[in-house]
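>> received
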Amino acid sequence: MTQSHESIVQQQFGPQAAAYVTSAVHAQGPDLDRIAAIAAEVSPAHALDLGAGGGHVSYALAPHAQAVTASDLSADMIAAIRAHAAGQGLANISGEVAPAEALPFADGAFDLLACRFTAHHWRAFEAGLREARRVLAPGAPAIFVDVVAPEQAQADVHLQAVELLRDPSHVRDYRASEWIAALGRAGFTVQAMRTHRLRMDFAVWTERMRTPEAHVAAIRSLQSMVAADVARHFALEEDGSFTLDVALFEAV
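>> returned
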């Protein structure tokens, strides 16, 4: 039986909404600190958290913005964000259910946009970037954060394979070079790129996505046969834990 990509995303993330709100991996990091610092400098009237997931970008933006809109394809994610924001007294956060490729916002509606750990799930990457550009006011800052694939082809393929086995809603972790080129085509100018490494505990990584045991076994099988240089790149550990590359792109 076949289904739309949007349905797969909602099936994967809807039941796990609460887990993403409380996820330690998503709730912290130098990238989130940088997003908050940029928001503090800009003091936006209306900021957009694009592909909000558990809402951690919204929570970081809220103290510095008059209003924050969290937008996500999953209604369950938006409901979880609203509940958490209410519990934390963050009254300036609102939610909107929408795909990144078709945002229900007016041209130039926002004066800051942040997008974190979501673009690798988009059905149409460049269409999502064009929509991000459309809803931003001219000259407004945009911050995009995601896992990036290695430039080396063999390591890239390995990453996409284990990501897809873990989560069927995965589309692609784009290379940094692909990000920069796509942002340029969408009308953005990249002003800076920051990178850091992020360790993924294998058990937590698979449990958060409810990965079927057969797929967990397939991932471990791939890891057991990986080339030595690929294993070194991902700092592959005995229990399957590994380390990813994360990039933050600052653009206008």
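>> The chain is about 45% helix and 20% strand.
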